[in-house]
Design brief:
mainly beta, five-stranded antiparallel beta sheet, 1 helix, about 5% helix
Length: about 100
């Protein structure tokens, strides 16, 4: 038997066009300067867990059930209607149909 380090999850720092394929494992609410926001955990095929957040992901991943297979593609930084910047993602979910 031995002690093993518990990791908090990987950091995904994508460049435009980078993809992350995995399973939406969980979501949890965190408190920040602008109120509460969800943090999503996606686990890839190698078992690495990535914690992601952001308004686009909240809108798109928030519609899916935990356990859904997903494919995220980073589309780059965009400007919103109010002039603020945000990170844009394409989010696809797997369907057996």
């Amino acid at each position: 038997m031995s002690w093993n380090e518990v990791e908090t999850g990987g950091q995904w720092a994508p460049e435009i066009g980078d993809k992350l394929e995995g399973v939406l494992k969980s979501r949890e609410m965190k408190k920040g300067q602008n109120g509460e926001y969800p943090v999503f955990t996606i686990e890839n095929a190698e078992g690495e867990a990535f914690r992601l957040w952001g308004i686009v992901l909240e809108t798109k991943l928030g519609q899916l059930e935990d356990g859904t297979k997903v494919l995220l593609t980073y589309k780059g930084e965009q400007r919103g209607k109010n002039g603020g910047k945000y990170k844009d993602f394409s989010v696809m979910s797997w369907s057996e149909e």
